[in-house]
Amino acid sequence: MALTRVQKEAMVEKYRSSLKDCRVAFLMEYSGAKIPQTDEIRKKLRENASKISVVKNRLFKRAVQGTHFEKLGAHMQGPLALVTSTQDVVAPAKVVYPFLKKEGTPFKLRTAVTFESPEPLTQEQFSILAQLPSRDQLVAKMLGSMMAPLRNV
Fold it and tell me: What is the pLDDT of residues 37-49, one digit of tens each?
């Protein structure tokens, strides 16, 4: 059954509101993915305050027009899943990266855009992002560095 114009407009608004507070968004191809694989990645993303959803390409292109994530619209072709996070830029990349590296995986990164970067990330930049320490690890290292001189006194 085809969507009505009202349903389509509501879906575009839903996409816009989901991107409103996003710090990172990236598109993944998922054709050929089995339900257990998709459920596993969805569960791990949820644990890291991120989410994954399948998007309708034409409607998503309209939703990103005039937003910081407009560059994602150029990559909308084929079955795609949108991964977003409103809190941490690194956490969703850390979750998705092992799935992308697996041999014979149906998941393929199409593009990624962070709120801090105006240009889409390349595959190499995404892999570097995924290998960065998490925010909590960085804070712990910084606090450890600040406390070290006090301990040596």
Answer: 899 999 999 998 8
Count of CA atoms in the C-beta half-sphere (13 A) of 17 = 6
Query: In angstroms, how far is the first alpha carbon of the chain from the final one?
Result: 73
CB atoms within 10 A of CB 49: 12
- 10 Å CB burial of residue 131 (0-12, 13-18, 19+) is exposed
DSSP β-bridge partners for residue 25: 84, 113
Question: Token digits for 141?
Answer: 């290292």
User: Which backbone phi and psi does 109 adopt, to 5 degrees?
Assistant: -75, 130
pTM of the model: 0.81
